[in-house]
């Protein structure tokens, strides 16, 4: 049985001979050929070269062609800030100052879409018989946020009808890009919507249930499988997400995988995840990665589960670590025997916390995976940065990225278990919830240090 068939069988609810392995090969694959993230996301030949190399080295059963949530936003007029080791970030929001700007669903000839479609077709011709290929679209809520900025969180309270109309447009855009990708040969369409973790179940029902049910029904009618990707602690939203009937929920390390599978099982859908990106895949050894993979396989069994990282892998994840996970999935018994006596080294880093009781200014700390690579983290960081305008020269803001080992230790010391999180003057204040401007302003003001 090919890896492709293995993935498709799991998504169809079948018990399989082994757990399938789907690495979320984003910009990390650029490192295999010495390119930057920007190079492979702008040059189709380089992207294809890295995809073929990663397919050979990582032995994936399924694989996304491109993991870039800004393709649709760019086609709709958003400017991008490019980076060497991360996907681009949106640096302006067309609807921020003129929310009534008339937008049209971009055609397949706009922006970088032709590049993406060309690489999809070429990669499909090379590995499409053996590897299940994922086409990833930017989810409606995150795309709406790209267009409107953090104002959308206030809009949800002040003008819900406007939000619904905007989401109707972004859903139509997602459906259009899904069609482009299906026509290019993609086997599975994933809607990647990191900001879903930042809203409540009631808000999901009010704004997202109808768009996502419509989206997944559209994909189903095209005859391909679907997946709903979410970042952050979306535990509270798993039920309402499952009710929209994707074929799979893809979750990150913030969520308890065993408990999440109870939810997906109740809906008869698959779950995918959720090896830790930083602590294990980026900073761990190959044996750490294999141990984590074996533990997931033992917990989940061989029905309704796809082994994967928690999200797209950071650029600097060592290729040996990714290969190690592939070995665990595809040669389970031998790998388990090799690591049966392996004990990971404890993270032993001393960190000194700020003297919160004697701050000269209010301090906002934003704990993130990395605001440059995680959309939810980026928007939470943007919300915090907005306070610089509200309190010019009166506050300090620090981003604590867990891509740095000392910030992992800092999270442990402060009891921070989920990301992104905002801490104000040492008090954990917003956990996987992006506050609107008024809420955050009030939280900072009442905590003001005299």
Describe this structure in words.
The longest helix is centred in the middle third of the chain and has 24 residues, at about 160-185. α8 (about 160-185) runs parallel beside α9 (about 200-220). It is built from 19 helices and 13 strands. The protein has helices spanning about 5-10, 35-40, 45-60, 70-75, 115-125, 140-150, 150-160, 160-185, 200-220, 240, 255-265, 275-280, 285-300, 320-330, 330-340, 375-385, 385-390, 405-415, 435-445, and strands at about 60-65, 80, 90, 130-140, 190, 225-230, 250, 270-275, 305-310, 365-370, 395-400, 420-425, 425-430. About 45% of the residues lie in helices and about 15% in strands. It is an alpha/beta fold and about 450 residues long. β5 (about 190), α9 (about 200-220) and β6 form a beta-alpha-beta unit. The termini are far apart. The protein folds into two domains: about 5-340, TIM Barrel; about 355-445, Glutaredoxin (3-Layer(aba) Sandwich). The strands form three sheets. A seven-stranded parallel beta sheet has the order 1-4-5-6-7-8-9. Strands 11-10-12-13 form a four-stranded mixed beta sheet, with helices on both faces. Strands 2-3 form a two-stranded antiparallel sheet. It is globular. The model has no long low-confidence stretch (mean pLDDT about 95).
């Amino acid at each position: 049985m090919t890896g492709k068939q293995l993935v498709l069988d799991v998504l169809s609810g079948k018990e399989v001979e082994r757990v399938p392995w789907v690495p979320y090969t984003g910009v990390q694959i650029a490192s295999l050929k010495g390119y930057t993230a920007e190079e492979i996301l702008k040059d189709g030949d380089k992207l294809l070269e890295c995809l073929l190399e990663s397919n050979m080295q990582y032995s994936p059963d399924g694989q996304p062609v491109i993991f870039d949530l800004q393709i649709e936003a760019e086609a709709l007029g958003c400017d991008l800030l490019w980076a060497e080791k991360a996907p681009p970030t949106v640096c302006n929001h067309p609807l921020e100052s003129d929310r009534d700007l008339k937008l049209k669903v971009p055609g397949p000839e706009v922006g970088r879409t032709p590049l993406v479609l060309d690489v999809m077709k070429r990669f499909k011709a090379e590995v499409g018989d053996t590897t299940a290929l994922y086409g990833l679209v930017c989810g409606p809520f995150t795309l709406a946020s790209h267009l409107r900025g953090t104002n959308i969180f206030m809009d949800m309270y002040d003008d819900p009808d406007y939000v619904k109309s905007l989401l109707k447009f972004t859903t139509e855009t997602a459906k259009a890009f899904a069609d482009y990708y299906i026509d290019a040969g993609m086997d599975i369409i994933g809607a990647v919507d990191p900001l879903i973790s930042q809203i409540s179940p009631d808000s999901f029902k009010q704004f997202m249930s109808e768009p996502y049910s419509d989206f997944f029904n559209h994909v189903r009618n095209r005859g391909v499988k679907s997946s709903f990707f979410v970042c952050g602690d979306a535990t509270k939203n798993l039920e309402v997400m499952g009710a929209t009937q994707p074929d799979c929920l893809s979750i990150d390390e913030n969520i308890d995988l065993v408990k999440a599978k109870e939810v997906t099982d109740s809906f008869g859908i698959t779950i995918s995840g959720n090896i830790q990106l930083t602590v294990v895949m980026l900073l761990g050894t190959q044996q750490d990665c294999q141990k984590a993979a074996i533990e997931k396989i033992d917990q989940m069994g061989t029905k309704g589960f796809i082994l994967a990282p928690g999200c797209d892998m950071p650029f600097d994840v060592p290729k040996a670590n990714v290969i190690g996970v592939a070995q665990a999935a595809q040669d389970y018994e031998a790998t388990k025997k090799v690591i049966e006596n392996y004990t990971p080294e404890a993270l032993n880093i001393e960190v000194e916390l700020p003297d919160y009781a004697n701050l000269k200014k209010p301090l906002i700390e934003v704990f993130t995976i990395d605001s440059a690579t995680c959309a939810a983290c980026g928007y939470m960081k943007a919300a915090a940065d907005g306070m610089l305008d509200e309190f010019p020269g009166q506050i300090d803001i620090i981003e604590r990225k867990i891509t740095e080992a000392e910030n992992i230790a800092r999270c442990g010391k402060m009891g921070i278990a989920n990301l992104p999180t905002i801490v104000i003057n040492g008090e954990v204040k917003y956990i996987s919830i992006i506050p609107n401007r008024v809420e955050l302003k009030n939280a900072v003001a009442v905590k003001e240090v005299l």
